[in-house]
């Protein structure tokens, strides 16, 4: 099954702009750096977020992106992506580095349009446009 990735010891393609020593590390093991801090609503785990993003492998290969703002439920994303976006504020841009254990693990995503290898660390650039809080209805 291989060994889960450890972003702290990996090499990142220079195009990604990842200097892991300059990143903050969350308790879960996700690394992040705010390229631009937002000033709007803060994203929490239960929220829906409207974002643009680009996801890369450590060698710089783009495997997924949305260039038009797309609404996603954070609960439906891989754990590391959710953890990385939590705490962002609207208007912010964040670079997120996700160890394989919080992404696709040892399975990878071999059937994706651009296959994600087993135990792959993922790098995401995310811009946050809207945070939509869960609606609570009172009967």
Descriptive account of the structure:
This protein has 139 residues and is mainly beta. The protein has one helix at 79-85; strands spanning 24-25, 31-36, 48-57, 62-73, 93-98, 122-132. Strands 1-2-5-6-3-4 form a six-stranded antiparallel β-sheet. Strand 3 (48-57) and strand 4 (62-73) form a beta hairpin. It is globular. The model has no long low-confidence stretch (mean pLDDT 94).
Can you give me a brief rundown of this structure?
This protein has 139 residues and is mostly beta strands.
List the helices and strands and how they pair.
Blueprint: E1 24-25, E2 31-36, E3 48-57, E4 62-73, H1 79-85, E5 93-98, E6 122-132
Strand content: 25-35%
Summarize model confidence as the mean pLDDT: 94
Percentage of residues assigned to helices: under 10%
Secondary structure category: mainly beta
Give the number of DSSP strands.
6
List the quaternary state of the chains: single chain
Low-confidence stretches: none
Choose one word for the global shape. Answer: globular
Give helix and strand order, one letter per element, not per position. Answer: EEEEHEE
Radius of gyration: 15 Å
Main sheet: which strands, in order across? 1-2-5-6-3-4
Largest sheet: 6 strands, antiparallel
The DSSP helix count reads 1
Through-space gap between termini: 49 Å
Keywords summarizing the entry:
139 residues; mainly beta; 6-stranded antiparallel sheet; 1 helix
